[in-house]
Amino acid sequence: MDDTALRDLLARTRRVALVGASANPARPSHGVMRFLLARGYAVVPVNPGLAGQTLLGQRVAADLEEAARDPAGPLDMVDVFRASDQAGAVVDEAIRLGARSVWLQLGVVDEAALQRARGAGLAAVMDRCPAIEWPRLRPDLAARESKQHQQPCGVTCKKAEQGQGSALDPPGAAPLDQLS
């Protein structure tokens, strides 16, 4: 997915189910959830072990189906913090439940699941992190934010810290100041 499509996806997304949410502040899923909430996204944490509890002020759903039943509306995105070998089942459930997009986090790679999602008409992102991509694609807004939010998910990215994009940028990608 190119930068324009990523930017559009993040702009039109309002409601996110975060599968694999953690109560541990040191876990990347916790940091990404905090990052998304701070930017106005409605986030439904999904974790059967924490079901019914509150995480960052949000009630934890036991599964994706429960998250999708929320009266707040349809799921715009399913953000997946699961092992690669478990991601396909989550993607299939997201398709079944009518989610509009799936986002497989850094290190979560399942090409077949990605193709199934795209084949079903979902926007699909793999092996990326919205907490890295959002500030990279929105430098106008990121510049106004506190330095403490640069790497909320705990992912170390020297290029992002130096204002040169993310570690996921293809060689020759435009620097931040050239993105609109």
State the main characteristics.
two-stranded antiparallel ribbon; 14% strand; alpha/beta; globular; disordered C terminus; Rossmann fold; 8 helices; 180 residues
What is the fold's blueprint, element by element?
Elements: H1 3-12, E1 15-19, H2 28-38, E2 42-46, E3 54-55, E4 58-59, H3 64-68, E5 77-80, H4 84-97, E6 101-104, H5 111-119, E7 123-125, H6 130-137, H7 139-142, H8 158-161
Parallel strand pairs: 1-2, 1-5, 5-6, 6-7
Antiparallel strand pairs: 3-4
Helix pairs in contact: 1-6, 4-5
Mean pLDDT figure = 83
Question: Main beta sheet, described?
Answer: 5 strands, parallel
Uncertain spans: 146-152, 155-180
Distance between termini? 17 Å
| Strand order in space, largest sheet | 2-1-5-6-7
CATH homology-level superfamily: NAD(P)-binding Rossmann-like Domain
Structural class: alpha/beta
The whole-angstrom Rg is 15 Å
Level of helix content?
A: 25-40%
The SSE order reads HEHEEEHEHEHEHHH
Q: Give the total of beta strands.
A: 7
What sort of overall outline do the alpha carbons produce when their principal axes are compared? globular
CATH-defined architecture = 3-Layer(aba) Sandwich
Number of helices: 8
Task: Kindly estimate the percentage of residues that lie in beta strands according to DSSP.
Answer: 5-15%
Q: What is the CATH first-level class name?
A: Alpha Beta
The CATH topology turns out to be: Rossmann fold
Number of domain units: 1
